[in-house]
Design a protein that fits this description.
about 210 residues; alpha/beta; Rossmann fold; five-stranded parallel beta sheet; three-stranded antiparallel beta sheet; about 30% helix; globular
């Protein structure tokens, strides 16, 4: 069983840092944005030393959020005609297939724990820059899952340092696929250069969730 406070949960310590915004985009679904804000929660008590952790269970539990998320995450990239959705373990494994189904395209999982089941099992891999816990994580997909003919949309629930999405972008570029952009629920980036490099769109800024 994974630790409750693993990489699926972003740590938050107060006071909050000031975030440098990139271009402001109107939400494609204002009602969904309000639901995301209303259902957002954090976990933390004396055992976590004053640090709080993002709790996404309220999002996944709400049927209206699940119903609206695929279209909202897809909207900015429909005209880019992606052929594949690429998403990281673990929340991306929930969102990626929903967005792929909305767009009528395939889904490729980028795994953290790469299990070589045979000597001939070949993977494309990339290692992240330091993440929010100063870790370097390896992501990968089986060779041939993404090719140079693909147009890749990267999907995840939350971006903080951008390290995981940058690694996935590099993975796609290794096989000469074109990355059309990244779509996330919440944008917590503090560096607008990373936001531009990822061609990132989001449904809500993290500061709108913290209260």
């Amino acid at each position: 069983m994974q630790d409750a406070f693993d990489s699926a949960s972003q740590a938050r310590s107060r006071p909050l840092a000031v975030h440098d915004d990139g271009p402001v985009r109107a939400s494609p679904d204002p009602a969904l944005k309000q639901l995301l804000i209303d259902r957002y929660d954090e976990i933390g008590d004396r055992s976590t030393g004053g640090t709080t952790y993002v709790d996404r269970d309220g999002w996944w539990r709400d049927p209206l959020i699940l119903q609206r998320l695929p279209a909202a995450l897809s909207e900015s990239f429909r005209n880019a005609a992606p052929t594949i959705v690429l998403a990281p373990q673990s929340s991306g494994f929930l969102l990626g297939p929903l967005v792929a189904r909305e767009l009528g395209i395939g889904f490729v999982p980028a795994r953290k724990e790469i299990d070589l089941v045979a000597d001939s099992d070949a993977w494309n891999t990339a290692t992240t820059p330091p993440d929010y816990r100063d870790r370097h994580l390896e992501f990968g997909f089986r060779r041939g899952a993404v090719t140079g003919a693909d147009r890749v949309l990267i999907v995840d629930d939350w971006v903080d340092t951008g390290s995981q999405l940058l690694a996935l972008r590099r993975l796609a570029q290794q096989v000469e696929a074109r990355v059309v952009g990244c779509s996330v629920i919440a944008d917590g980036l503090s560096d607008h250069r990373t936001r531009r490099a990822l061609q990132l769109t989001s449904l809500v800024h993290a500061r709108e969730l913290w209260r």
